[in-house]
Design brief:
There is one protein chain. The protein has 221 residues and is α/β, with parallel strands linked by helices. 49% of the residues lie in helices and 12% in strands. Strands 2-1-3-4-5-6 form a 6-stranded parallel β-sheet, sandwiched between helices. β5, α5 and β6 form a beta-alpha-beta unit. It is elongated, with a radius of gyration of 21 Å.
C-alpha cells in the first residue's frame, strides 16, 4: 500500500474524515491533508526536494475562494504543477463533478489514475480507488458512464475554425468565401450549415450562441 499520500480538500470536516478513514482502512500513516492548493503544492515540492516524494495525490477540482490569495487555485492547476515536479505521481480526483465529458478529459488530458464522485458511498469508493490504483489499475466511480456517445465526440479542426469565425460575427456565407479564398475545401455554404447543424445535435444546442456557450463551458473552444 502507498506509504505517503497528499490530500487537497478545502472542506475541513471532509478533509479530516478522509484522513481518518484512510488511516483506519488502509493503514496509511504518512497522510498529509491541506485545504489550499498552494500549500499542497509546497508540501509536494519540499518532499520531492528531500528525496521523500509523495506517492499519491488526492485532490478535489473546485476550491472555494476566501481571504487567502492563492496562485494555484484549482485541482486542475494543482495536477499540472504536480506533474511538472513528479511526472509519474499517481493522481486520484475526488469531486462532485459528474459530467462524463469533463471526467473523460481528466483521464485523456491530465492522465489521472482514478476518479471518485463524491456522494453517500464516496469514502468507501475512495478506499477502493486507492487499492485499485496501487495495483496499477484505473478506477472510475460506478455511477459515472464514460461510454456515452456525446462524451467521446471530438471537435475537428475544421469545426473549430467555423465556430471561431461564427463567434467573431461572420455569417456562414462570409465563412464560405473566406475558405474559398484560402483554398480550403469543402467550402460551400451548405457544407458549413450541415457541420453546424451536426454540432447542434451532438451538443444539444438550440442556436449558434447556445452552442458556442456550451463548448466554452466544456473547455472545447
Amino acid at each position: 500500500m502507498f506509504k505517503k499520500v497528499l490530500l487537497a480538500e478545502d472542506f475541513q470536516g471532509e478533509n479530516r474524515g478522509i484522513v481518518t478513514t484512510l488511516h483506519e482502512k488502509l493503514g496509511i500513516d504518512q497522510l498529509q491533508g491541506e485545504m489550499y492548493c498552494d500549500k499542497a503544492l509546497n508540501r509536494l515540492k519540499v518532499a520531492h526536494g528531500h528525496a521523500q516524494p509523495f506517492e499519491l495525490l488526492i485532490t478535489d477540482l473546485s476550491f472555494k475562494k476566501d481571504h487567502v490569495v492563492q496562485k494555484v487555485a484549482s485541482g486542475i492547476s494543482l495536477m499540472k504543477a504536480a506533474r511538472e515536479i513528479q511526472p509519474k505521481i499517481n493522481i486520484i480526483v475526488n469531486s462532485m463533478e459528474d459530467n462524463p465529458m469533463k471526467i473523460n478529459a481528466l483521464f485523456k488530458e491530465h492522465n489521472i489514475n482514478g476518479y471518485v464522485c463524491k456522494g453517500p458511498n464516496g469514502l468507501q469508493e475512495l478506499v477502493t480507488a486507492i487499492r485499485e490504483v496501487y495495483q496499477n489499475r484505473t478506477y472510475v466511480s460506478p455511477n459515472v458512464n464514460l461510454q456515452v456517445q456525446n462524451n467521446v465526440f471530438e471537435l475537428e479542426a475544421f469545426d473549430l475554425d467555423i465556430l471561431k469565425d461564427l463567434a467573431n460575427g461572420l455569417t456562414k456565407k462570409e465563412i464560405a468565401l473566406k475558405l474559398r479564398d484560402q483554398h480550403i475545401s469543402p467550402n460551400s455554404e451548405s457544407t458549413i450549415d450541415k457541420r453546424v447543424s451536426r454540432l447542434f445535435d451532438e451538443f444539444g444546442a438550440k442556436n449558434t450562441n447556445h452552442l458556442i456557450a456550451k463548448l466554452v463551458k466544456l473547455g472545447k473552444i
